[in-house]
Design a protein that fits this description.
heterodimer, A: alpha/beta, six-stranded mixed beta sheet, 11 helices, 14 strands, B: five-stranded mixed beta sheet, 14 helices, 9% strand, binds adenosine-5'-triphosphate, binds magnesium ion
């Protein structure tokens, strides 16, 4: 759309939050967080229940006002010029917020009209979205009568009705079965390809692996940020590798080794600076020391594990 | 130029909101029940309770001074005509006369002492109709109907007893000018125009807040003003249609005669309806959920009814109660609407009341707009 094209001359950052804070009375729900979401990326916001994800998102969408700090979306201050920003944002709240006594089609139409679409443009857009999200055959069904997964698809379709450049999705896959979850992430990837920026929250770590970058929140603060790989490395303090060998070996004598995670006779789990660089050096050194290496490979660490480590640290 | 364009698009944004509200309204069976059925049911109940008269069948009484077979046959004929509903058969003229005078029935038909005898003898005879002249059109219909029945009866009697004539004689009686059913109309309108819009709008706003639908709504470029104005418009039309429908029910079913013009009554109703809507807004500001909003609407409605003079005239209330009444917009409406609908005043003659009602409206609106938050919590 025209609006999206005009954005290309605008700043690199889709979202920029600085010292963003929200207090509810004395309780600090979001505590001086800084966020930078780049244009076109898929940014995941993770954290346990009550971490402050939804509160952060609501400040980004301008649904609530920050107690301190600011958010800019495409360089526009949300608190000051909310009206201007709205057309760039498509928002899918955590709680289903469409009208249950309107049909699927009526909901999308209503939001299309509220966004200023009329006539054949509106009709086309509604039809396109209904088809794209497999809602066509349910278009006459009341939204309240839809299954959880269908409700989420409808909410996504509605969030996209004005073709926004930034999509903010608060737990879009909550209560959605695995095949449909995968489908959702395929949609997200497509939307990213179209040049849209996505900010998404989730409790599913396997999904979060698909994000370009992540921020981990706990108790209102961001405790880690980076690509999934960076986050895992930071959680462990390096890469995890496994070594199986015959003979005798002192793991601390090996190059690049930062710590030993597991030591079970002839099998080590080691944390090294950088698996790619260090593994060949380790093999070489071990053989020099007279041990026969049977296996030497990087170990996949789940985000979940990294997550739990970070959480433990921040307690 | 740009401003103008903005303005046009802004204006248009209200249409989808009105559209949405009407759809939701129509789809909610509970609301439909309250909005449509309640007022009409009340109209019908009060109509019968207050002695309203159904069309087609005119309620009359018969005074049978004759007591013979001829009179019996004539009464049968009246019944067969399906135009009358015979409420009572009396033995004295006085009873018949007072049944008309009190406004209970439209007319009383007297069959004289010698009716059967005259028939048998083939002498000319008569029936006497005492009708309520304060209701000329109904009186006209009744006279015609009696004429027809008498004519038929005469033809039948002529074939059996020989030629003679039965003359219907008509006498006027003045019943009470305004009957109870008419005086109930301002009360009915006050009920519809107060309870329906106030509860509809306050419940609708609270429902959005409760269900969290505002969170999506305020992501569009609509303003708080658009939302409120959209809802006001939708419920305005819903209530006006409801009031019109109830009024027509009363007119058609109970032959209510109103002196006020449609325009005057509409103007007065509109002023009061806007007041009820703004009261609903105010209630939604201070209610936490739909139930509270509904209860507050009903509660204010009851208070308003008590102090509006529909049950007890305000003049006979204590000084304190009069004070309260002076803060009840419905009191001014009932006064104004009574004068307009029953006495046929122009709305210009009740401008004082309308001004007071509007003052309340502005106060409610100002308070609501000041405190109404669309922000999610
Ligand atoms: N309006 C409010 N008033 C008071 N406290 C609030 C309000 N909204 C949120 N909170 C509190 O702020 C904290 C953060 O809530 P938030 O909804 O942002 O968490 P979340 O990370 O989205 O959690 P979840 O994963 O469960 O959705 C919670 O402790 C919550 O109780
Ligand atoms: Mg949340």
């Amino acid at each position: 759309m025209l609006e999206a094209r005009r954005l290309e001359e605008q700043p690199e950052l889709a979202v920029e939050a600085k010292d963003l804070t929200k207090r509810f009375g004395k309780f600090v729900a979001v505590d001086h967080i800084n966020l930078e979401i780049r244009r076109g990326e898929n940014f995941g916001l993770l954290g346990p229940n009550g971490a402050g994800k939804t509160t952060t998102i609501r400040m980004i969408t301008g649904v609530i006002k920050p107690s301190e700090g600011y958010v800019k979306v495409f360089g526009i201050d949300v608190a000051k010029e909310r009206k201007k920003v709205l057309k760039y944002i498509g928002y899918m709240p955590q709680k289903f917020s469409l009208y249950e006594d309107l049909t699927v089609e009526e909901n999308i139409r209503l939001y299309g009209r509220l966004q200023g679409l009329t006539g054949s443009l509106l009709r086309e857009r509604v039809r396109e979205l209904l088809e794209r999200f497999y809602l066509w055959e349910f278009r006459r069904r009341l939204a309240g009568k839809l299954s959880g997964g269908m409700k989420q698809r409808l909410a996504l379709a509605t969030a996209l009705v004005h073709d926004p450049a930034l999509l903010i999705l608060d737990e879009p896959t909550a209560g959605v079965d695995p095949p449909l979850r995968r489908k959702f992430w395929e949609h997200f990837r497509e939307l990213n390809k179209e040049g849209k920026t996505i900010l998404v929250t989730t409790h599913y770590m396997d999904e979060a692996e698909n994000c370009d970058r992540l921020a981990l929140m706990n108790r209102g603060r961001i405790i880690a940020e980076g690509t999934p790989r960076e986050i895992k490395r930071r959680a462990l303090g390096g890469d995890l590798v496994e070594i199986v060998f015959e003979g005798h070996l002192d793991p601390t004598a090996l190059p690049g080794v930062k710590s030993v995670l597991e030591d079970s006779r002839e099998r080590y789990l080691l944390i090294v600076e950088d698996a790619g660089k260090d593994l060949p050096r380790i093999v070489k050194k071990a053989e020099e020391l007279g041990a026969k290496i049977l296996v030497a490979s990087p170990v996949h660490v789940s985000l979940e594990e990294a997550f739990i480590r970070f959480m433990g640290e921040s307690e | 130029m740009i401003e103008l364009e903005e303005g046009i698009r802004k204006g248009l944004r209200i249409i989808p909101i009105v559209d949405k509200e009407i759809r939701q309204l129509v789809r909610d069976p509970k609301t439909i029940l309250m909005v449509l059925l309640m007022p009409i049911t009340v109209t019908i109940l009060f109509g019968y309770g207050y002695g309203g008269k159904g069309v087609g069948k005119y309620p009359i009484t018969v005074v049978d001074l004759d007591g013979g077979d001829g009179a019996f046959k004539f009464i049968q004929e009246l019944r067969n005509s399906k135009m009358f509903q015979i409420k009572a058969i009396y033995k004295s003229k006085g009873q018949g006369f007072s049944s008309v005078y009190s406004g209970k029935v439209y007319a009383s038909l007297v069959i004289p002492e010698t009716f059967t005898e005259d028939l048998m003898e083939g002498r000319p005879t008569r029936v006497e109709l005492y009708y309520d002249a304060s209701n000329p059109s109904v009186a006209q219909m009744i006279m015609q109907a009696v004429g027809v029945v008498t004519q038929q009866f005469q033809e039948w009697a002529a074939s059996r007893f020989g030629t003679f004539a039965i003359t219907p004689m008509f006498y006027t009686v003045y019943g009470p000018k305004i009957k109870k059913i008419e005086s109930f109309i301002p009360t009915l309108m006050a009920m519809i125009l107060q309870m329906v819009p106030t509860s509809l709008i306050s419940v609708s706003i609270c429902r959005e807040r409760e269900k969290g639908t505002f969170e999506q709504f305020i992501m569009t470029p609509v303003s708080v003003f658009d939302i409120i104005f959209g809802k006001l418009t939708a419920y305005f039309f819903a209530t006006i249609s409801d009031a019109t429908l109830s009024l027509f029910t009363a007119v058609l079913l109970f032959d209510v005669k109103l002196k006020g013009t449609f325009l005057d009554m509409t103007i007065v109703s509109t002023v009061f309806l806007l007041n009820s809507l703004s009261l609903g807004l105010l209630i939604s500001v201070f209610s936490k959920n739909q139930l509270q909003a509904y209860q507050a609407s009903i509660f204010s409605f009851i208070i308003f009814m008590l102090f509006s003079g529909v049950f007890i005239p305000v003049d006979v209330l204590s000084t304190e109660a009069k004070m309260i009444a002076s803060f009840v917009p419905m009191y001014y409406f009932v006064t104004a609407f009574r004068n307009v609908s029953l006495k046929g005043w122009s709305y210009l003659m009740v401008l004082d009341q309308l001004a007071v009602i509007s003052m309340f409206t502005f106060a409610f609106l100002a308070l609501s707009l000041r405190f109404l938050r669309m922000e999610v919590t």
